[in-house]
Amino acid sequence: MARAKPVDNRGAVPDIKDSMARTQRKAKPGGGGRGRAAERAGDLAAIVLAAGQGTRMRSARAKVLHELLGRPLGLYPIELARALGADPVVVVLGHQREAVEGALLARLGVGAVTVVEQTQQRGTGHAVRLAMPALSGFRGKLVLVLYGDVPLLRRETLEELVGTARRYGCLAVVTTTPPDPTGYGRIVRDQRGHVTGVVEEKDASPEERAITEVNAGIYCGPADFFRRATAGLGARNAQGEYYLTDIVARAAADAEIGVTAIDADFRDVAGINDRRQLAEAEAAMRARINQAFMAHVTFRDPASAVVEPDVEIGVDVELGRNVALRGRTRIGHGARIGDGVILTDVEVGAGAEIRPYTVGTEAVIGAGARVGPFAHLRPGTRLGPDTHVGNFVETKQTTLGRGSKANHLSYLGDATIGERVNVGAGTITCNYNGYEKFRTFIEDGAFIGSDTQLVAPVRVGKGAVVGAGTTVTRDVAPGALALTRVPQIEKRGYARKVAKKYADKRKSG
Ligand code: UD1
Ligand code: CA
Q1: Model-level pTM?
Q2: What residues are in contact with ligand 1 under a 6 Å CB criterion?
Q3: DSSP-based three-state secondary structure for 166
Q4: Which residue's alpha carbon is at the smallest distance from atom 37 of ligand 1?
Protein backbone atom coordinates (compact mmCIF):
# COMPACT_ATOMS: atom_id res chain seq x y z
CA MET A 1 0.00 0.00 0.00
CA ALA A 2 2.86 2.32 0.69
CA ARG A 3 4.20 1.47 -2.73
CA ALA A 4 6.28 4.32 -4.06
CA LYS A 5 5.15 4.45 -7.62
CA PRO A 6 6.32 6.96 -10.17
CA VAL A 7 3.81 9.68 -10.85
CA ASP A 8 2.67 9.35 -14.40
CA ASN A 9 1.63 12.71 -15.65
CA ARG A 10 -0.60 12.31 -18.65
CA GLY A 11 -2.34 15.21 -20.16
CA ALA A 12 -3.48 18.62 -19.32
CA VAL A 13 -2.33 19.16 -15.77
CA PRO A 14 1.27 20.30 -15.84
CA ASP A 15 1.58 21.50 -12.27
CA ILE A 16 0.29 18.37 -10.63
CA LYS A 17 3.56 16.51 -11.01
CA ASP A 18 5.71 18.71 -8.85
CA SER A 19 3.30 18.92 -5.98
CA MET A 20 2.91 15.14 -6.04
CA ALA A 21 6.58 14.43 -6.20
CA ARG A 22 7.14 16.59 -3.17
CA THR A 23 4.33 15.23 -1.10
CA GLN A 24 3.50 11.71 -2.05
CA ARG A 25 6.13 9.83 -0.14
CA LYS A 26 5.33 11.24 3.23
CA ALA A 27 1.66 11.42 2.35
CA LYS A 28 1.33 7.69 1.86
CA PRO A 29 -0.38 6.02 4.78
CA GLY A 30 1.83 3.69 6.75
CA GLY A 31 4.67 5.29 4.85
CA GLY A 32 7.76 6.44 6.64
CA GLY A 33 9.86 6.42 3.53
CA ARG A 34 12.17 3.71 2.34
CA GLY A 35 13.14 1.47 5.20
CA ARG A 36 16.13 -0.73 5.78
CA ALA A 37 14.31 -3.66 4.24
CA ALA A 38 13.78 -1.90 0.93
CA GLU A 39 17.44 -0.94 0.76
CA ARG A 40 18.41 -4.57 0.93
CA ALA A 41 15.91 -5.72 -1.68
CA GLY A 42 16.84 -8.98 -3.30
CA ASP A 43 17.25 -11.13 -0.21
CA LEU A 44 13.57 -11.41 0.67
CA ALA A 45 10.71 -13.62 -0.51
CA ALA A 46 7.19 -13.67 0.88
CA ILE A 47 4.52 -16.33 1.29
CA VAL A 48 0.96 -15.09 1.73
CA LEU A 49 -1.48 -17.67 3.08
CA ALA A 50 -4.97 -17.25 1.69
CA ALA A 51 -6.34 -20.72 1.01
CA GLY A 52 -8.94 -20.68 3.77
CA GLN A 53 -12.64 -20.32 3.17
CA GLY A 54 -13.58 -17.57 5.58
CA THR A 55 -16.84 -19.20 6.65
CA ARG A 56 -17.71 -16.45 9.10
CA MET A 57 -18.07 -13.90 6.32
CA ARG A 58 -21.23 -15.83 5.33
CA SER A 59 -20.64 -14.95 1.74
CA ALA A 60 -20.58 -16.48 -1.71
CA ARG A 61 -17.42 -14.47 -2.26
CA ALA A 62 -14.02 -15.58 -0.94
CA LYS A 63 -13.01 -13.62 2.14
CA VAL A 64 -9.90 -12.05 0.63
CA LEU A 65 -12.00 -10.63 -2.22
CA HIS A 66 -14.21 -8.60 0.09
CA GLU A 67 -13.30 -4.99 -0.42
CA LEU A 68 -11.68 -2.71 2.08
CA LEU A 69 -11.53 0.89 0.88
CA GLY A 70 -12.20 -0.09 -2.70
CA ARG A 71 -9.78 -2.98 -3.11
CA PRO A 72 -9.80 -6.68 -2.22
CA LEU A 73 -8.54 -7.00 1.34
CA GLY A 74 -6.13 -9.74 0.23
CA LEU A 75 -4.27 -7.16 -1.81
CA TYR A 76 -3.02 -5.26 1.24
CA PRO A 77 -0.53 -7.81 2.59
CA ILE A 78 0.63 -8.67 -0.92
CA GLU A 79 1.33 -5.06 -1.78
CA LEU A 80 3.02 -4.51 1.55
CA ALA A 81 5.33 -7.46 0.90
CA ARG A 82 6.11 -6.06 -2.53
CA ALA A 83 6.72 -2.61 -1.10
CA LEU A 84 9.35 -4.18 1.16
CA GLY A 85 11.05 -5.57 -1.91
CA ALA A 86 9.90 -9.18 -1.49
CA ASP A 87 10.38 -11.04 -4.74
CA PRO A 88 8.93 -13.50 -5.42
CA VAL A 89 5.68 -13.18 -3.55
CA VAL A 90 4.07 -16.61 -3.39
CA VAL A 91 0.35 -16.64 -2.68
CA VAL A 92 -1.20 -19.88 -1.44
CA LEU A 93 -4.78 -20.17 -2.66
CA GLY A 94 -7.38 -22.90 -2.26
CA HIS A 95 -10.95 -21.89 -1.70
CA GLN A 96 -12.21 -20.24 -4.94
CA ARG A 97 -8.69 -20.27 -6.27
CA GLU A 98 -9.60 -19.17 -9.77
CA ALA A 99 -11.77 -16.24 -8.74
CA VAL A 100 -9.20 -15.05 -6.21
CA GLU A 101 -6.27 -15.46 -8.57
CA GLY A 102 -8.13 -13.66 -11.35
CA ALA A 103 -9.07 -10.72 -9.16
CA LEU A 104 -5.61 -10.35 -7.65
CA LEU A 105 -3.77 -10.61 -10.95
CA ALA A 106 -6.18 -8.15 -12.55
CA ARG A 107 -5.02 -5.64 -9.96
CA LEU A 108 -1.36 -6.59 -9.68
CA GLY A 109 -0.57 -7.59 -13.24
CA VAL A 110 0.31 -11.05 -14.48
CA GLY A 111 3.61 -12.27 -13.07
CA ALA A 112 3.51 -10.03 -10.01
CA VAL A 113 2.88 -13.02 -7.76
CA THR A 114 3.38 -16.76 -7.97
CA VAL A 115 0.25 -18.71 -7.14
CA VAL A 116 0.48 -22.09 -5.43
CA GLU A 117 -2.66 -24.14 -5.01
CA GLN A 118 -3.52 -25.88 -1.76
CA THR A 119 -6.55 -28.01 -2.61
CA GLN A 120 -7.10 -29.25 0.94
CA GLN A 121 -6.52 -26.91 3.84
CA ARG A 122 -4.44 -29.19 6.02
CA GLY A 123 -3.00 -26.40 8.12
CA THR A 124 -0.76 -23.36 7.97
CA GLY A 125 2.38 -25.52 8.05
CA HIS A 126 1.14 -27.56 5.11
CA ALA A 127 0.42 -24.36 3.17
CA VAL A 128 3.94 -23.02 3.70
CA ARG A 129 5.45 -26.39 2.83
CA LEU A 130 3.57 -26.36 -0.48
CA ALA A 131 4.92 -22.89 -1.21
CA MET A 132 8.58 -23.75 -0.59
CA PRO A 133 9.31 -25.35 -4.01
CA ALA A 134 8.40 -21.99 -5.59
CA LEU A 135 11.37 -20.61 -3.63
CA SER A 136 13.91 -23.23 -4.67
CA GLY A 137 17.13 -21.52 -5.54
CA PHE A 138 16.39 -19.05 -2.80
CA ARG A 139 19.17 -20.21 -0.52
CA GLY A 140 20.79 -17.96 2.02
CA LYS A 141 17.88 -15.58 1.85
CA LEU A 142 14.88 -14.69 3.97
CA VAL A 143 11.25 -15.74 3.87
CA LEU A 144 8.42 -13.61 5.21
CA VAL A 145 5.13 -15.37 5.97
CA LEU A 146 1.91 -13.35 6.09
CA TYR A 147 -1.83 -14.02 6.11
CA GLY A 148 -4.04 -12.71 3.33
CA ASP A 149 -6.68 -11.50 5.78
CA VAL A 150 -4.57 -9.06 7.85
CA PRO A 151 -4.91 -5.79 5.93
CA LEU A 152 -3.99 -3.37 8.70
CA LEU A 153 -0.49 -4.71 9.17
CA ARG A 154 1.93 -1.80 9.25
CA ARG A 155 4.99 -1.43 7.13
CA GLU A 156 7.03 -0.44 10.19
CA THR A 157 6.17 -3.72 11.92
CA LEU A 158 7.33 -5.75 8.95
CA GLU A 159 10.48 -3.68 8.58
CA GLU A 160 11.34 -4.41 12.18
CA LEU A 161 10.51 -8.10 11.72
CA VAL A 162 12.54 -8.48 8.54
CA GLY A 163 15.37 -6.34 9.90
CA THR A 164 15.60 -8.54 13.01
CA ALA A 165 15.63 -11.79 11.02
CA ARG A 166 18.24 -10.31 8.72
CA ARG A 167 20.51 -9.09 11.50
CA TYR A 168 20.45 -12.20 13.66
CA GLY A 169 19.61 -14.92 11.12
CA CYS A 170 16.85 -15.92 13.56
CA LEU A 171 13.18 -16.71 13.25
CA ALA A 172 11.40 -13.46 14.07
CA VAL A 173 7.71 -13.75 15.04
CA VAL A 174 5.08 -11.08 15.60
CA THR A 175 3.32 -11.38 18.93
CA THR A 176 0.46 -9.35 20.34
CA THR A 177 -1.81 -9.13 23.37
CA PRO A 178 -5.47 -9.02 22.33
CA PRO A 179 -8.26 -8.01 24.70
CA ASP A 180 -9.40 -11.64 24.58
CA PRO A 181 -6.82 -14.29 23.65
CA THR A 182 -9.41 -17.02 23.03
CA GLY A 183 -8.74 -18.94 19.82
CA TYR A 184 -5.17 -17.80 19.35
CA GLY A 185 -1.94 -19.71 19.72
CA ARG A 186 -0.26 -18.71 23.00
CA ILE A 187 3.36 -17.63 23.19
CA VAL A 188 5.28 -19.79 25.65
CA ARG A 189 8.40 -18.28 27.23
CA ASP A 190 10.97 -19.74 29.60
CA GLN A 191 11.96 -18.26 32.97
CA ARG A 192 14.39 -15.91 31.27
CA GLY A 193 11.64 -14.64 29.02
CA HIS A 194 12.89 -16.33 25.85
CA VAL A 195 10.23 -17.65 23.50
CA THR A 196 10.29 -21.44 23.48
CA GLY A 197 7.25 -22.20 21.37
CA VAL A 198 3.61 -21.59 20.46
CA VAL A 199 0.80 -23.74 21.74
CA GLU A 200 -2.55 -23.69 19.97
CA GLU A 201 -5.61 -23.09 22.11
CA LYS A 202 -6.99 -26.57 21.49
CA ASP A 203 -3.74 -28.16 22.61
CA ALA A 204 -3.10 -25.86 25.53
CA SER A 205 -3.11 -26.74 29.23
CA PRO A 206 -5.17 -24.51 31.55
CA GLU A 207 -1.94 -22.74 32.60
CA GLU A 208 -1.03 -22.10 28.97
CA ARG A 209 -4.51 -20.79 28.20
CA ALA A 210 -3.98 -18.20 30.89
CA ILE A 211 -1.17 -16.67 28.80
CA THR A 212 -2.31 -13.41 27.23
CA GLU A 213 0.49 -12.95 24.70
CA VAL A 214 -0.46 -14.63 21.42
CA ASN A 215 0.95 -15.47 18.03
CA ALA A 216 -0.10 -13.08 15.26
CA GLY A 217 0.88 -15.59 12.57
CA ILE A 218 3.49 -13.37 10.91
CA TYR A 219 7.03 -14.68 10.67
CA CYS A 220 10.36 -13.99 9.00
CA GLY A 221 13.41 -16.21 8.97
CA PRO A 222 16.04 -17.90 6.82
CA ALA A 223 14.58 -19.68 3.78
CA ASP A 224 16.64 -22.79 4.45
CA PHE A 225 15.27 -23.01 7.97
CA PHE A 226 11.67 -22.73 6.66
CA ARG A 227 12.37 -25.47 4.14
CA ARG A 228 13.84 -27.84 6.73
CA ALA A 229 11.34 -27.04 9.44
CA THR A 230 8.19 -27.32 7.34
CA ALA A 231 9.41 -30.57 5.74
CA GLY A 232 9.68 -32.07 9.21
CA LEU A 233 6.22 -31.08 10.49
CA GLY A 234 3.79 -33.67 11.80
CA ALA A 235 0.06 -33.42 12.45
CA ARG A 236 -0.21 -35.14 15.81
CA ASN A 237 -2.23 -32.49 17.59
CA ALA A 238 -5.81 -31.78 18.61
CA GLN A 239 -6.79 -30.62 15.11
CA GLY A 240 -4.83 -33.14 13.05
CA GLU A 241 -3.32 -30.22 11.13
CA TYR A 242 0.19 -29.32 10.12
CA TYR A 243 0.84 -26.37 12.39
CA LEU A 244 3.27 -23.77 11.13
CA THR A 245 3.54 -22.72 14.75
CA ASP A 246 5.55 -25.85 15.50
CA ILE A 247 8.55 -24.31 13.73
CA VAL A 248 8.84 -21.80 16.57
CA ALA A 249 9.85 -24.45 19.11
CA ARG A 250 12.18 -25.92 16.54
CA ALA A 251 13.91 -22.57 15.95
CA ALA A 252 14.13 -22.00 19.71
CA ALA A 253 15.82 -25.37 20.18
CA ASP A 254 18.32 -24.72 17.37
CA ALA A 255 21.27 -22.67 18.63
CA GLU A 256 22.00 -21.59 15.07
CA ILE A 257 18.55 -20.04 14.67
CA GLY A 258 16.78 -18.89 17.84
CA VAL A 259 13.55 -16.88 18.11
CA THR A 260 12.97 -13.17 18.52
CA ALA A 261 9.50 -11.80 19.23
CA ILE A 262 8.36 -8.48 17.77
CA ASP A 263 5.45 -7.00 19.69
CA ALA A 264 2.66 -5.31 17.73
CA ASP A 265 -0.57 -3.52 18.58
CA PHE A 266 -3.38 -6.05 18.32
CA ARG A 267 -5.50 -3.71 16.18
CA ASP A 268 -2.83 -3.72 13.48
CA VAL A 269 -2.36 -7.47 13.26
CA ALA A 270 -5.94 -8.67 13.78
CA GLY A 271 -7.29 -10.80 10.96
CA ILE A 272 -10.66 -10.14 9.35
CA ASN A 273 -13.07 -12.98 10.03
CA ASP A 274 -16.51 -11.43 9.73
CA ARG A 275 -18.21 -8.38 8.30
CA ARG A 276 -18.16 -6.48 11.56
CA GLN A 277 -14.39 -6.76 11.68
CA LEU A 278 -14.27 -5.75 8.02
CA ALA A 279 -16.23 -2.57 8.76
CA GLU A 280 -14.02 -1.79 11.74
CA ALA A 281 -10.89 -2.37 9.72
CA GLU A 282 -12.14 -0.12 6.96
CA ALA A 283 -12.82 2.65 9.46
CA ALA A 284 -9.36 2.20 10.96
CA MET A 285 -7.66 2.26 7.57
CA ARG A 286 -9.64 5.33 6.57
CA ALA A 287 -8.61 7.15 9.74
CA ARG A 288 -4.99 6.14 9.20
CA ILE A 289 -4.93 7.46 5.62
CA ASN A 290 -6.71 10.69 6.55
CA GLN A 291 -4.35 11.25 9.48
CA ALA A 292 -1.35 10.92 7.19
CA PHE A 293 -2.76 13.40 4.67
CA MET A 294 -3.61 15.91 7.39
CA ALA A 295 0.07 16.83 7.45
CA HIS A 296 -0.57 18.98 4.37
CA VAL A 297 -4.28 18.72 3.47
CA THR A 298 -7.21 20.39 5.25
CA PHE A 299 -10.09 18.08 6.02
CA ARG A 300 -13.33 19.87 6.93
CA ASP A 301 -14.57 16.59 8.41
CA PRO A 302 -12.03 13.77 8.53
CA ALA A 303 -14.60 11.39 9.98
CA SER A 304 -16.70 11.52 6.83
CA ALA A 305 -13.99 11.75 4.16
CA VAL A 306 -13.10 8.57 2.28
CA VAL A 307 -9.67 8.60 0.67
CA GLU A 308 -8.64 5.29 -0.86
CA PRO A 309 -5.06 4.02 -0.54
CA ASP A 310 -3.85 4.83 -4.06
CA VAL A 311 -5.06 8.43 -4.01
CA GLU A 312 -2.48 11.23 -4.14
CA ILE A 313 -3.15 14.72 -2.85
CA GLY A 314 -0.97 17.79 -3.22
CA VAL A 315 -0.29 20.47 -0.63
CA ASP A 316 -2.89 23.02 0.44
CA VAL A 317 -5.83 21.01 -0.81
CA GLU A 318 -9.12 21.41 1.04
CA LEU A 319 -11.58 18.54 1.29
CA GLY A 320 -15.19 19.14 2.34
CA ARG A 321 -17.57 16.89 4.21
CA ASN A 322 -18.56 13.50 2.83
CA VAL A 323 -15.97 13.62 0.09
CA ALA A 324 -14.95 10.33 -1.51
CA LEU A 325 -11.71 10.13 -3.48
CA ARG A 326 -11.39 6.69 -5.00
CA GLY A 327 -9.15 4.62 -7.20
CA ARG A 328 -6.16 6.44 -8.62
CA THR A 329 -7.56 9.91 -8.13
CA ARG A 330 -4.91 12.63 -7.91
CA ILE A 331 -5.57 16.12 -6.61
CA GLY A 332 -3.18 18.92 -7.56
CA HIS A 333 -1.99 21.46 -5.05
CA GLY A 334 -4.36 24.13 -3.84
CA ALA A 335 -7.46 22.46 -5.30
CA ARG A 336 -10.72 22.71 -3.37
CA ILE A 337 -13.02 19.74 -3.24
CA GLY A 338 -16.51 20.62 -1.99
CA ASP A 339 -18.94 18.69 0.18
CA GLY A 340 -20.24 15.41 -1.20
CA VAL A 341 -17.90 15.27 -4.18
CA ILE A 342 -17.20 11.71 -5.39
CA LEU A 343 -14.21 11.25 -7.69
CA THR A 344 -13.01 7.90 -9.02
CA ASP A 345 -9.81 7.78 -11.07
CA VAL A 346 -9.99 11.51 -11.65
CA GLU A 347 -7.04 13.84 -12.05
CA VAL A 348 -7.69 17.34 -10.70
CA GLY A 349 -5.31 20.13 -11.68
CA ALA A 350 -3.77 22.63 -9.32
CA GLY A 351 -6.10 25.28 -7.99
CA ALA A 352 -9.21 23.73 -9.49
CA GLU A 353 -12.46 24.07 -7.62
CA ILE A 354 -14.83 21.14 -7.55
CA ARG A 355 -18.07 22.33 -6.07
CA PRO A 356 -20.44 20.22 -3.97
CA TYR A 357 -22.03 17.01 -5.15
CA THR A 358 -20.02 16.68 -8.32
CA VAL A 359 -19.51 13.08 -9.44
CA GLY A 360 -16.56 12.27 -11.70
CA THR A 361 -15.13 9.03 -13.09
CA GLU A 362 -12.04 8.55 -15.28
CA ALA A 363 -11.81 12.23 -16.05
CA VAL A 364 -9.11 14.89 -16.19
CA ILE A 365 -9.83 18.37 -14.84
CA GLY A 366 -7.37 21.09 -15.75
CA ALA A 367 -5.69 23.57 -13.47
CA GLY A 368 -7.94 26.39 -12.33
CA ALA A 369 -11.10 24.77 -13.68
CA ARG A 370 -14.41 25.21 -11.88
CA VAL A 371 -16.80 22.29 -11.86
CA GLY A 372 -20.26 21.85 -10.31
CA PRO A 373 -22.21 21.97 -8.13
CA PHE A 374 -23.99 18.84 -9.33
CA ALA A 375 -21.90 18.17 -12.40
CA HIS A 376 -21.48 14.64 -13.72
CA LEU A 377 -18.18 13.94 -15.48
CA ARG A 378 -18.24 10.50 -17.04
CA PRO A 379 -15.31 8.50 -18.46
CA GLY A 380 -13.22 10.18 -21.12
CA THR A 381 -13.96 13.71 -19.98
CA ARG A 382 -11.00 16.07 -20.33
CA LEU A 383 -11.55 19.60 -19.14
CA GLY A 384 -8.77 22.01 -20.05
CA PRO A 385 -7.33 24.67 -17.76
CA ASP A 386 -9.71 27.40 -16.59
CA THR A 387 -12.81 25.71 -17.98
CA HIS A 388 -16.18 26.02 -16.28
CA VAL A 389 -18.67 23.20 -16.12
CA GLY A 390 -21.71 24.10 -14.11
CA ASN A 391 -24.76 22.55 -12.53
CA PHE A 392 -26.57 19.64 -14.16
CA VAL A 393 -24.03 19.31 -16.92
CA GLU A 394 -23.14 15.77 -17.95
CA THR A 395 -20.05 15.06 -20.02
CA LYS A 396 -18.77 11.81 -21.54
CA GLN A 397 -15.84 11.24 -23.95
CA THR A 398 -15.69 14.98 -24.28
CA THR A 399 -12.84 17.45 -24.40
CA LEU A 400 -13.27 21.07 -23.44
CA GLY A 401 -10.41 23.37 -24.44
CA ARG A 402 -8.88 26.07 -22.27
CA GLY A 403 -11.31 28.68 -21.00
CA SER A 404 -14.43 27.08 -22.47
CA LYS A 405 -17.68 27.13 -20.50
CA ALA A 406 -20.76 24.97 -20.23
CA ASN A 407 -22.42 26.41 -17.21
CA HIS A 408 -25.93 25.02 -17.09
CA LEU A 409 -28.04 21.98 -17.88
CA SER A 410 -26.30 20.29 -20.78
CA TYR A 411 -25.36 16.89 -22.14
CA LEU A 412 -22.02 16.90 -23.93
CA GLY A 413 -21.20 13.40 -25.17
CA ASP A 414 -18.57 12.44 -27.76
CA ALA A 415 -17.71 16.07 -28.34
CA THR A 416 -14.45 17.82 -29.12
CA ILE A 417 -14.80 21.40 -28.02
CA GLY A 418 -12.06 23.95 -28.65
CA GLU A 419 -10.88 26.87 -26.56
CA ARG A 420 -12.99 29.84 -25.37
CA VAL A 421 -16.22 28.22 -26.52
CA ASN A 422 -19.44 29.19 -24.78
CA VAL A 423 -21.96 26.39 -24.58
CA GLY A 424 -25.35 27.84 -23.68
CA ALA A 425 -27.84 26.44 -21.18
CA GLY A 426 -29.71 23.36 -22.30
CA THR A 427 -27.35 22.40 -25.11
CA ILE A 428 -27.51 18.74 -26.08
CA THR A 429 -25.17 16.79 -28.31
CA CYS A 430 -27.31 14.16 -30.03
CA ASN A 431 -24.54 11.59 -30.32
CA TYR A 432 -26.50 8.37 -30.70
CA ASN A 433 -28.97 7.25 -33.33
CA GLY A 434 -29.94 4.08 -31.57
CA TYR A 435 -27.19 2.08 -33.28
CA GLU A 436 -24.03 4.15 -33.55
CA LYS A 437 -22.35 7.03 -31.79
CA PHE A 438 -21.00 10.08 -33.61
CA ARG A 439 -18.83 13.04 -32.62
CA THR A 440 -19.59 16.71 -32.47
CA PHE A 441 -16.81 19.22 -33.12
CA ILE A 442 -17.04 22.78 -31.91
CA GLU A 443 -14.06 24.89 -32.89
CA ASP A 444 -12.35 27.66 -30.94
CA GLY A 445 -14.34 30.72 -29.99
CA ALA A 446 -17.71 29.41 -31.18
CA PHE A 447 -20.87 30.51 -29.37
CA ILE A 448 -23.62 27.96 -28.92
CA GLY A 449 -26.93 29.56 -27.97
CA SER A 450 -29.18 28.11 -25.32
CA ASP A 451 -31.37 25.10 -26.03
CA THR A 452 -29.36 23.98 -29.03
CA GLN A 453 -29.30 20.43 -30.29
CA LEU A 454 -26.21 19.37 -32.21
CA VAL A 455 -27.06 16.28 -34.24
CA ALA A 456 -23.77 14.43 -34.72
CA PRO A 457 -21.74 13.97 -36.79
CA VAL A 458 -21.56 17.71 -37.11
CA ARG A 459 -19.00 20.52 -36.90
CA VAL A 460 -19.39 24.12 -35.81
CA GLY A 461 -16.56 26.19 -37.28
CA LYS A 462 -14.23 28.60 -35.54
CA GLY A 463 -15.99 31.65 -34.16
CA ALA A 464 -19.38 30.59 -35.53
CA VAL A 465 -22.60 31.47 -33.74
CA VAL A 466 -25.53 29.12 -33.27
CA GLY A 467 -28.75 30.92 -32.39
CA ALA A 468 -30.75 29.86 -29.37
CA GLY A 469 -33.17 27.02 -29.96
CA THR A 470 -31.39 25.76 -33.08
CA THR A 471 -31.23 22.13 -34.19
CA VAL A 472 -27.88 21.88 -35.98
CA THR A 473 -27.88 19.04 -38.53
CA ARG A 474 -25.29 20.36 -41.00
CA ASP A 475 -21.78 21.77 -40.49
CA VAL A 476 -21.61 25.47 -39.70
CA ALA A 477 -18.88 27.44 -41.51
CA PRO A 478 -16.36 29.41 -39.46
CA GLY A 479 -17.73 32.79 -38.47
CA ALA A 480 -21.25 32.04 -39.76
CA LEU A 481 -24.57 32.26 -37.92
CA ALA A 482 -26.70 29.11 -37.94
CA LEU A 483 -30.33 29.38 -37.02
CA THR A 484 -33.31 27.02 -37.33
CA ARG A 485 -36.27 28.80 -35.93
CA VAL A 486 -39.97 28.88 -36.68
CA PRO A 487 -40.86 32.53 -37.39
CA GLN A 488 -42.61 34.11 -34.43
CA ILE A 489 -46.25 35.04 -34.90
CA GLU A 490 -48.18 37.54 -32.82
CA LYS A 491 -51.92 37.81 -32.20
CA ARG A 492 -52.80 41.14 -30.63
CA GLY A 493 -55.44 41.27 -27.92
CA TYR A 494 -55.51 37.46 -27.68
CA ALA A 495 -55.30 37.16 -23.92
CA ARG A 496 -58.17 39.51 -23.22
CA LYS A 497 -60.36 37.75 -25.81
CA VAL A 498 -59.84 34.33 -24.23
CA ALA A 499 -60.42 35.67 -20.73
CA LYS A 500 -63.73 37.20 -21.81
CA LYS A 501 -64.85 33.96 -23.48
CA TYR A 502 -64.35 31.96 -20.26
CA ALA A 503 -65.93 34.66 -18.08
CA ASP A 504 -69.06 34.55 -20.29
CA LYS A 505 -69.15 30.77 -20.10
CA ARG A 506 -69.04 30.86 -16.26
CA LYS A 507 -71.95 33.33 -16.11
CA SER A 508 -74.18 31.29 -18.41
CA GLY A 509 -73.20 27.94 -16.75
C1 UD1 B 1 -3.17 -19.38 13.31
C2 UD1 B 1 -2.04 -19.83 14.23
C3 UD1 B 1 -2.24 -19.24 15.61
C4 UD1 B 1 -2.37 -17.74 15.54
C5 UD1 B 1 -3.46 -17.35 14.56
C6 UD1 B 1 -3.46 -15.86 14.35
C7 UD1 B 1 -1.38 -22.00 13.36
C8 UD1 B 1 -1.42 -23.46 13.58
N9 UD1 B 1 -2.01 -21.25 14.27
O10 UD1 B 1 -4.39 -19.85 13.83
O11 UD1 B 1 -1.15 -19.59 16.44
O12 UD1 B 1 -2.65 -17.22 16.82
O13 UD1 B 1 -3.21 -17.96 13.29
O14 UD1 B 1 -4.56 -15.52 13.55
O15 UD1 B 1 -0.77 -21.53 12.43
N16 UD1 B 1 -4.47 -21.06 5.72
C17 UD1 B 1 -4.12 -21.66 4.54
N18 UD1 B 1 -4.10 -23.01 4.46
C19 UD1 B 1 -4.40 -23.80 5.52
C20 UD1 B 1 -4.75 -23.17 6.73
C21 UD1 B 1 -4.77 -21.80 6.82
O22 UD1 B 1 -3.84 -20.99 3.55
O23 UD1 B 1 -4.34 -25.01 5.36
C24 UD1 B 1 -4.49 -19.59 5.79
C25 UD1 B 1 -5.88 -19.04 6.04
O26 UD1 B 1 -6.52 -18.72 4.81
C27 UD1 B 1 -5.58 -17.78 6.84
C28 UD1 B 1 -4.30 -18.12 7.59
O29 UD1 B 1 -3.73 -19.20 6.90
O30 UD1 B 1 -5.31 -16.68 6.02
C31 UD1 B 1 -4.54 -18.46 9.03
O32 UD1 B 1 -5.41 -19.55 9.13
P33 UD1 B 1 -6.40 -19.71 10.33
O34 UD1 B 1 -7.12 -20.99 10.19
O35 UD1 B 1 -7.19 -18.47 10.51
O36 UD1 B 1 -5.37 -19.79 11.55
P37 UD1 B 1 -5.58 -20.43 12.93
O38 UD1 B 1 -5.38 -21.89 12.81
O39 UD1 B 1 -6.83 -19.92 13.49
CA1 CA C 1 -7.63 -16.95 12.17
Answers
A1: 0.89
A2: 49-52, 92, 118, 121-124, 126-127, 147-149, 184-185, 198, 200, 214-217, 243-245, 271
A3: helix
A4: 184
